[in-house]
From TrEMBL:
Name of this chain's protein: HTH lysR-type domain-containing protein
Domain of life where this protein originates: Bacteria
SUPFAM superfamilies per UniProt: Winged helix' DNA-binding domain (SSF46785)
InterPro entries: LysR_HTH_N, WH-like_DNA-bd_sf, WH_DNA-bd_sf
Species of origin: Pseudomonas jessenii
MF terms (GO), sorted A to Z: DNA-binding transcription factor activity
Lineage of producing organism: Bacteria, Pseudomonadati, Pseudomonadota, Gammaproteobacteria, Pseudomonadales
Boundaries of every HTH lysR-type domain copy: 7-36
Length: 54
């Protein structure tokens, strides 16, 4: 079964998509820019690069 991203990861992804900026997203989420980048990369490895179980 494929691992699903956490709700926090999805919140960060939505904020980055809306703002199109790691810096603005970090301000909106009250976290550092590094945290936003790290969570975005985690989403990428969790959802996009995970092998299809079929």
């Amino acid at each position: 079964m494929r691992q699903m991203p956490s709700l926090n990861m999805l919140r960060v992804f939505e904020e980055v998509a809306r703002n199109r900026s790691f810096s603005q997203s970090a301000l909106g989420l009250n976290v550092t820019q590094g945290a936003v980048k790290w969570l975005t990369q985690s989403i990428d490895s969790t959802c996009i690069n995970s092998p299809d179980p079929g």
